[in-house]
Specification:
The structure holds two protein chains of two kinds. By secondary structure, chain A is an alpha+beta fold. In chain A, 32% of the residues lie in helices and 24% in strands. Chain A has 13 helices and 15 strands. In chain A, the strands form four sheets. Chain A has a seven-stranded mixed β-sheet. Chain A has a four-stranded antiparallel β-sheet with strand order 7-6-13-12, with no helix packed on it. In chain A, strands 4-5 form a two-stranded antiparallel ribbon. In chain A, helix 9 crosses helix 11. Helix content of chain B is 40%, strand content 11%. A five-stranded parallel β-sheet of chain B has the order 2-1-3-4-5, with helices on both faces. Chain B is globular, with a radius of gyration of 20 Å. The chains are: A alpha+beta, B alpha/beta. Chains A and B meet through strand 5 and helix 10 of A and helix 2, helix 6, helix 7, helix 8 and helix 10 of B. The complex binds iron/sulfur cluster (4 copies).
């Protein structure tokens, strides 16, 4: 289907039509000196004229020379926060005269419309769909949110120094997995439609046919992102190269730098580990079964039968990287990394997985 | 435990904040009080029964010769001894004196220093007697205190988290202030317990709950030095309420010796 054109000022119509349909619109907004994903009501809450500058262990907001609304890359949050919330109640139980009475949670999650989803993030959602929805056990918390959400993707027109989606074949062009996809130009947006829900919404918007110049401008804006991507990760044979080098000295070196702080796994849009705890009141009459985000870097999380099975930082770092890039293929049929670069930026000591992989494979070849 | 366990609270050098956490348990305290017999708790009641006790909570560090003798006595009367808070567990903020001239402090503070009998150091309870459980924090978390007490009464293992502050910081959705603003933060080295409050209010973590398991302070300080943080600032960061905990202490002393060479 050919794309349409939406004038800049009419983006507010998109927000309103989504809200008319009962969606809570989650989009990029400046908060805590970063571009975060939060509920937004007007396009004035978008990071107009701001961008982010990223490198290993460092993130800063910076003014742009123009008034772009989506002129940044990916920030500290991912959509995972909304689809797989950091804390969820799975069940409650109350002691009654007739024994325990168990209840499923009654909360109905909001219908989310995600605005500004990047290509690498679409790929990450696709991976979590596979994990949570397509295995033998469906995750009901994820399913209830995912099935009701609407995705407005945005094509990147620039990339950060930490981005490597081209290596992972996930971006920067949004190919599938969206309802609508936008490409931002100074005067407005090129709009592509990816689903029936997308065309239904599009029909309610004041769009027109784009001019030939607008089509060319959008194409070169998207090309700009491709050219800006400098970071590479060679993925040929990566599974074998990592799994046959489990005793490479580089793991030990990474283990000396790594703080085992879990930040990389928390910001990663595909990491899905969690812990389930029973939280009781003092008399143990009311119990909640709570699920919280957890991480392979957490020593408690590696503890089985009272004994930590990965009892040093190096082994936990190796577990993370080899799962993400190697055994994920066996488990889910793809890499667990989409190349968004978040784990590089948000590591407090700037450990860069692409560098670690290159070092381990360097000796192999 | 068949009869109601007898609980006693003892205070050494401390600010009383951790004992207050127990009083702060209000409603829950009634239930706790129903499940245990509080036989010695100077902060709350005039009842002061002699030992032996089933559960002893110890607040504060050892800073005087008298206290060094008294803790032996407390231990001899305790079936289960648990330290509460950073003072009892690591020596507290007052352990800053361990790196200073104690005599000089005495002269500066007291009109008649010869009347003062104190030790040159402030040390953790575990440096003097065996400790069965350490509850961290400055102050301790009331939820964790209740959890440990209830677990003890029920005879099960307490669920106190061993993960670091960063995990809670990310769960609550805070943006990392170290990465986004260059503010040094003790979060990656510190055990959780507070729910990562400080970074949510634009402050670096102070390390209230002491070192997380298997911490590597040198990697963090090395990175912060590279980013331009002055070594002095990092020493101050490490020397807070848990500055004398071995992992933090080792790193601050290493930073200082490195500067001197
Ligand atoms: S990794 Fe690619 S798709 Fe993701 S933000 Fe960077 S340029 Fe965009
Ligand atoms: S491993 Fe790192 S680069 Fe890859 S998807 Fe996760 S956060 Fe992004
Ligand atoms: S790689 Fe970095 S972010 Fe991940 S656990 Fe280690 S220090 Fe933390
Ligand atoms: S602000 Fe501090 S506690 Fe939070 S993620 Fe960053 S380093 Fe960790």
């Amino acid at each position: 289907m050919p794309p349409w054109f939406l004038e800049k000022a009419c983006l507010q119509d998109l927000l309103e039509r989504l809200r008319d349909r009962g969606y809570a619109v989650i989009g990029p907004t400046i908060s805590q000196e970063a571009i975060c994903y939060d509920e937004i009501h007007t396009i004035d809450e978008l990071p107009r004229g701001w961008t982010d500058v990223q490198q290993a262990g460092r993130y800063r907001l910076q003014r742009r020379a123009d008034e772009s609304l989506f002129g940044y890359v990916v920030g500290p949050h991912s959509w995972k926060r909304y689809l797989f919330p950091p804390q969820a109640t799975l069940m409650t139980a109350d002691r009654t005269d007739g024994g325990w009475s168990m209840q499923a949670p009654v909360e109905v999650p909001p219908r989310y419309a995600f605005l500004g989803v990047r290509a690498c993030e679409l790929a990450a959602i696709r991976i979590q769909d596979k994990v949570f929805l397509e295995g033998p056990y469906v995750d009901l918390v994820y399913q209830a949110r995912r099935e009701r959400c609407f995705v407005v993707a945005v094509n990147c027109t620039q990339a950060a120094s930490t981005c490597f989606c081209t290596s992972m074949n996930t971006g920067p062009r949004c190919q599938a997995g969206f309802d609508l996809a936008l490409t931002e130009l100074p005067t407005g947006f090129l709009v592509e439609c990816g689903s029936d829900a997308g065309s239904e919404l599009l029909a309610s918007l004041p769009v027109r046919e784009p001019s030939a110049e607008e089509l060319t401008a959008a194409e070169s804006a998207r090309e700009q992102a491709v050219h800006q991507i400098q970071r590479l990760m060679d993925t040929t044979n990566i599974r074998e190269d990592l799994l046959t080098n489990l005793n490479h000295p580089r793991w030990q070196e990474a283990g000396e730098r790594c703080l085992s702080c879990t930040n990389c796994t928390m910001v990663c849009p595909t990491c899905f580990c969690s812990s389930v705890n029973e939280v009781a009141d003092l008399g143990a009459d009311h119990v909640r079964r709570e699920r919280v985000w957890d991480s392979c870097f957490n020593l408690d999380f590696s503890t089985m039968n009272g004994t930590p099975v990965r009892n040093n930082v190096a082994s936990r770092y190796r577990q993370w990287l080899t799962h993400k890039l190697a055994s994920w293929h066996d488990q889910f049929g793809s890499s667990g990394c989409v190349g968004c670069g978040r784990c590089i930026t948000w590591c407090p000591v700037g450990i860069d997985l692409t560098e670690e992989v290159a070092a381990i494979r360097g000796d192999v070849r | 435990m068949t009869a109601k366990p007898r609980l006693a609270v003892f205070k050494f050098a401390s600010c009383d904040g951790c004992q207050l956490s127990l009083l702060d348990c209000e409603d829950e305290l009634l239930a706790v009080a129903g499940a245990v017999e509080i036989v010695h708790f100077a902060e709350a009641t005039s009842r002061m029964e002699p030992g032996p006790y089933d559960i002893v909570l110890v607040e504060g560090s050892i800073t005087t010769p008298d206290d060094a003798a008294r803790i032996q006595d407390v231990r001899a009367n305790a079936r289960f001894l648990m330290t509460i808070g950073a003072c009892a567990t690591a020596g507290g903020i007052q352990s800053l004196r361990n790196w200073a001239d104690h005599q000089e402090f005495l002269q500066a503070v007291y009109a008649r220093p010869e009347y003062i009998s104190s030790l040159a150091t402030s040390t953790a309870i575990a440096d003097h007697v065996p400790v069965d459980f350490e509850l961290r924090g400055c102050p301790i978390s009331r939820q964790q205190l209740l959890e440990v007490l209830v677990a003890l009464i029920d005879g099960r293992k307490p669920q106190t988290p061993g993960h670091g502050v960063c995990l809670d910081c990310k769960r609550r959705g805070s943006v990392c202030i170290t990465v986004a603003r260059g503010v040094p933060c003790m979060g990656p080295l510190t055990q959780s317990g507070c729910g990562a409050i400080c970074p949510a209010f634009d402050r670096g973590c102070y390390g209230c709950f002491g070192p997380a398991p298997q911490v590597q302070p040198r990697s963090l300080t090395g990175h912060l030095l590279e980013q331009g943080a002055p070594p002095r600032q990092l020493v101050q960061l490490l020397r807070n309420f848990n500055g004398f905990a071995p992992e933090f202490r080792g790193e601050s002393e290493r930073l200082i010796s490195q500067q001197e060479t």
